[in-house]
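Q: Is it fine to ask for two folds in a single conversation?
A: Yes, each is treated on its own. Send the first.
Q: Here.
A: Result:
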Amino acid sequence: MSIHVRLATEKDAEQLSRLNQLFNGGEAVSPEKIKESMKNSNELIVVAIVDEKIMGFSCAQVFSSFCYDELQGEITEMYVHEGVRRQGLASLMINLLEEKLAECNAKHVKILTGKQNKAAIKTYTKNGYQLEEDVLLEKKL
């Protein structure tokens, strides 16, 4: 089995659409919309490739605030197809995103996941992330 990770390109939009629908459900995001987002945002998107097929993706962003002296990074999405989990793909994607976030001068990185997602929490802590006691509240506008 051949495994590697790299930054996504517009050529990956169709496969990203398929994986995102598996991850988030609902109506598929069109490849055209994904390409447009790639052109117009500073989002970092990494793909995990297994035997020449994209089987995972992860996204990150850098943000600044007057509240912090340094740029902050956030890994906002992480998905690995069920059939290839526990092969180290998430860790490879995290490592590449951290490298790219550091190149953007981010000094801290955070990841948000559900408290019931034990496999993700294990992966993140294995990669040096510390579990915090923050509470997330959300409201639909």
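Q: Second one now.
A: Result:
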Amino acid sequence: MKLRNTIMTLAVSAAAAFGPAYAQTAEGPSVGAAIERVATQLAGRIGFAAQEIGSDDVIAFNGDEAFVMASTYKVAIAAAVLDRVDRGELSLDQMVEVTPDMMMIGDAALNGTFVHPGLQLSIANVIEVMITESDNTATDISMGLAGGPAAVTQYLRRIGISDISVDRTTGEIIGEFYGLPGPATHKLATEVFKARPELLKIQADRNLDFEADPRDQATPLAMLQLLLAIDSGTATSAESRDFLIDVMSRTRTGAGRLKGLLPRGTPVANKTGTIGGVANDVGYITLPDGRRFAIAVFTKSSETSEADRDRAIAEVARSLFDYFHVGQMAKQ
């Protein structure tokens, strides 16, 4: 409770002193730095960026530093698939066959439920499961629909985003993280983990070599740029924008992260990411008066518990929620 009160006071004090969003580039004490000092007690190194939609001011800390995206990169994959839908190359009601040999390890909405051949999903449902359940089978199907990692990165460059790189499938990322011999299919991983049970313990441990790999990384400011591009209709059509944000509003992972300390009933549309010492959450939060802000929170190199990492993200989200809300009231 002391930590919650401390960081809330920092946000309220900053809002009272500086009015609306105190920018990363301004001189003097920054609300971003104040939040960072508290949040890093819980989660190693942290970076975040946030912006009220419709405003030009950004609050960020370590905003230009690269972080492992983990499953937050699924937002970029979804947007790239929807771009192909917008161009008439795919349709959301198009059916995709999901065969047993396509099943991936990870959060297992599909491989933990459908063990027999004969599964088909619409592209809309593939995206739904990828985002709301962070399902890796659905993600690698979506990656293929987008044209592969290089095509997703090319799409991001086309819409003006330079500091997000999508380089591997989830099977490749997980396989390399665990040291598996090739992409991590469910069958392969089951056999390897039976033979080498010690591998299972590293899921929650930081892996500095993995974090140092520049592939599949983003800066908080670049992820914020993507979120704003989606919301503005720059990244996709307005129809695809509405579809994706609606899907993100049903995310069931990471209840203790962006959502963890917000007032009950606060609308949140988000996507989480977790691997090793990395815990992330990105998305949109609605303020009591209906204004919204986009937010990206990344962590890395953490040796704390996953609950502490979740709490760090929740502290950032709540502090910025208070900051934007109090800042608006200070102007009135």
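Q: Anything structural to flag on that second result?
A: Two points. The beta strands are 45-52, 58-61, 67-68, 95-98, 119-122, 217-218, 268-275, 278-286, 292-300. The two ends are 30 Å apart (CA to CA).
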